[in-house]
């Protein structure tokens, strides 16, 4: 299980991270105490609402399908984080490289 830390440094970023593990742990720093992150699951038709009460919450998103796309709208910073789950194995260094490449665009 990898831990990906996504700092929200820009106001209008779209960060796409291919998630090739089945069970990734994504750490999303919450700059406010009362953020609400809504994750719509298109395959199961579930809506999971996760209240972020601390600055650094860890959200575990199990990817049950290979081609799920989970969109997490961040209401305060207007960020959209799209996490497609595609295959089985990828190293954490490649995750972080993709992350920082996306952040620098």
What does the model show?
The chain has 105 residues and is mostly beta strands. The chain has a single domain, classed as Immunoglobulin-like. It is 12% helix and 44% strand. The strands form three sheets. It has a three-stranded mixed beta sheet with strand order 1-3-6. Strands 2-8-7 form a three-stranded mixed beta sheet. A hairpin with a 4-residue loop joins strand 7 (69-74) and strand 8 (79-84). The longest helix is centred in the last third of the chain and has 13 residues, at 92-104. The chain is globular, with a radius of gyration of 13 Å. It starts with a strand and ends with a helix.
CATH class: Mainly Beta
User: Helicity, in percent?
Assistant: 10-25%
How do the strands line up in the largest sheet? 1-3-6
| CATH T-level topology | Immunoglobulin-like
CATH architecture: Sandwich
Q: Return residue spans where pLDDT drops below 50 for at least 5 consecutive residues.
A: 32-41, 43-57, 76-84, 86-94
| Continuous helix count | 1
**How would you state the average pLDDT, rounded?**
49
Number of strands: 8
What general form does the structure show? globular
Main sheet summary: 3 strands, mixed
Give the helix/strand class.
mainly beta
Work out the radius of gyration.
13 Å
How far do the termini sit from each other?
27 Å
What proportion strand? 35-45%
Order of helices and strands: EEEEEEEEH
User: Can you tell me the number of structural domains?
Assistant: 1
